Amino acid sequence: MTDRHIFRMMHFQNVERILQDGAIHAKNFRTQPGYQISYENIVNKRGTVYRTPAGDVVNDYVPFYFSPRTSMAHTISKENVPLRDPSGTKVGVANMDDVIFMVSHTSHFQNAALPFWFTDVACNSGAMVPEYKNDFSELQSHVEWSLFDETPTVATIPEISYNGVCRYFFDRDNPPEHSNRSTKRMAEFMVKDQVPLKFIDCIVTKNETIKQSVEAWIQADLPPKTGHSRREFRRMVNIFWGGCHVIRGMPLMT
Fold first, then answer.
1. Which of the four pLDDT bands, split at 50, 70 and 90, describes residue 218?
2. Helix, strand, coil % (nearest 5) of the chain?
3. Under DSSP, is residue 61 helix (H, G, I), strand (E, B) or coil?
4. Which of 72, 98, 110, 227 has the smallest C-beta neighbourhood within 10 Å, fewest atoms?
5. Residue 1 among known ligand-binding residues
6. At residue 249, does pLDDT exceed 50?
């Protein structure tokens, strides 16, 4: 079975509530107010139009992507996405400095008794119809991994053995396999209802200030929710995109 890192992108201020809840909640599962760094119209369609083979909607699931470098992350970096506060009010423009990634592995969910799907393209793709699978034996063949693993690579995280992803993700006519590269690079791994924090390996932050905020929330909120001691949440390493940090010691699978 292919085991891949998966990345959940969010505004850093959402981390505190997630730590308090002890899990990442799907939008339709339980109220988990947070800052939104996505297009509202697409979020709404994921809650109404886009459905899985089980008949439920995409917003019934917590979505992860197979790399931190996606067309959506690029759009945020170009300051083309509005930032909305927990009430839904537009408060500015989203930027990558305020983005964090919660990182997990596909293998954590193999025997976890949590319903899941993985797709070959973005669930909200307008160019291609996503095909949903929930058999881990098909993960290797279902996602076009060559588009992730081509060189040159960026965003390596040696501390968690993540070898990075191909720097390029835009569509182009030649070679033909790149014609739908951007939406294939946003293939999703989705977990029904919620992802408990024990499935999260680490948190990646962009700068020292956010790292310190997240660390403080972890020390205050996480151990009581998981039964782990504060000592397990103290290791920091300076890596990722030249100025980012990985907060390690998140509780692994037991």
1. confident
2. 30, 25, 45
3. strand
4. 227
5. no
6. no
* Angle in degrees, CA 70, 18, 155, rounded to 5: 30
- 248 catalytic residue (yes or no): no
| Tokens matching residue 106 | 């596909």
* CA–CA gap between residue 232 and residue 86 (Å, rounded): 30
Is 10 annotated in a binding site? The answer is: yes
Residue 248 exposed, middle or buried by CB count within 10 Å (0-12, 13-18, 19+)? middle
In angstroms, the CA 10 to CA 37 distance is 7
Residues in the chain: 254
Residue pLDDT, tens place only, 32-68: 999 999 999 999 999 999 999 999 999 999 999 999 9
On the question of pLDDT at 110 being above 70, the answer is yes
The domain spans of the chain are 5-248
Is 167 within any annotated ligand binding site?
no
